[in-house]
Predict the structure.
Amino acid sequence: MKRLLTIEWLKVRNYRTFHVYIGLYILLILAVYAGFDSFKINGPIDLSVVYKFPNVWYYAAYVSTWFAAIPALLMINLVCNEISYRTMRQHIIDGMSRVDYLKGKLILAGAISMLTGILVLLIGSLFGILKGPSTSILDGIGEISYVLRAMWVSFGIMTAAIFIAIVVKRSALSILFFLLLYWIIEPIIGNMWLTDIYPYLPFNSLDEFITSPFQLKSISFGKTSTPWDVTLAGIIYPLLFIAGSYHQLTKKDL
Amino acid sequence: MEILLEVKNLKKIYGRIAAVNDISFSVKKGQVFGLLGPNGSGKTTLLGCLTGILLPSSGSFDWFGGADFDGARKRLGALIETPNFFPYLSAAKNLEIIAKIKECPENRIDEVLKEVDLFDRRNDAFKTFSLGMKQRLAIAAALMNNPEVLILDEPTNGLDPQGINEIRNLIIKQQQAGKTIILASHLLNEVEKVCTDVVILRKGNVLQHGRVSDILSGKLRIAVSADNMELLQSKLSTLTLVENVNLKDGMVYAELQDNANISSINKSLVEAGVDVNHLVQVKTDLESEFLKLVQK
């Protein structure tokens, strides 16, 4: 595992695009979260509680999902690069197993989702301490589960991106497919035409791990509950994307 | 001799076309094994199967007497089609990745870079390299693990004469170091110059398989010229002592039947009224063998 992570790191270490993506991802989450309490919205929500423990991690996690497409596009870029540079083929020729190749990409996705988690934990704690009303960080520490939820959402969306990239192979087309699915086809067309199953579609079921505060009926925290079967769908989809990528990589010519 | 690679009835089918059709052969330690055939004869497809990037439709192959395939590939050094590297990484950093994959020590990086004469350019990005340098870097990558078998697919393709020479010298050096080499090429003289054994392929089928020296030591071949070339060609064609008479580059070539020798040919031609001014025995080169086979 360490060897595979090292290999992935050697590939991206000097790749400027990688650093730009990761830098933008961190900066945008930070910028939006830092100003979230002054967000102008209509509704029953009082955003002044954003920096109050234990809400901090929930809001930080929620903000991170706005930008979940960034690491996903990065994964598409990295996988498609390796297909067009033919380095993926070469590394298989050189003795890497096809399964190890997929593992490497999943480990990298795991590392990026770990970064998401650390970011959510850090900025949540930091803003809670600096800007929040004087409550203890230990109040409602259980809500720290939102750190893990943010990690799973970001990882899950990356598995979808890896799968699309491995199947479609071409960078521009993969990005188009991914963005259409993520922003148009599932949330708009799916919502219009597939109303009954819409909650169970991949991106929505993942999103439901961190319900939007704008859908909350009241400002009291932690009262919404996602139906268990939607949560289950959100757990199953990433596994299906991994299985699909595995099938594509091991049962097809490269 | 120890068998390093055993290919049994290997088949790779694309739709209705068999790119590799029921091929069997074995490669023994120390051989320089040529895969010879025109473009599209299945050489690269065959090597793709043997190196794990293509999945055979049927048949099988064994490396190193049936070793685990992922492990076996780490004992090979292969350059298939084009040099494949990350364009934005330097030569040394690209090789660092290969070292990790093949699990070989990092001090090999400088050694192989020196071996292919790229040490001075080790910190330059791959994308700044010329085609010849890219090809040399690919050979450096293939040599990283000090491989037991070196697989080279058209290693001189697209190179200028100097580049071809550099690559050929590298191959000869490896051969002298006792490496087993599998070399795919459509260039006959390349195979003829460096290979000990050859499989000749056409449209995915094996046309001939054997030692280069055996294929070369076919029938005696002569080159003849005369004052009247047309007369020479027509008379020669009627002789039962020879076959496959053809005119090429102002010289008539023919193959001798087993019972013939050069003096009997000369005598027959003089008797037929042909003034021969040149009659020599020429080597039956692989090219004429190859063309003969491929034309069938």
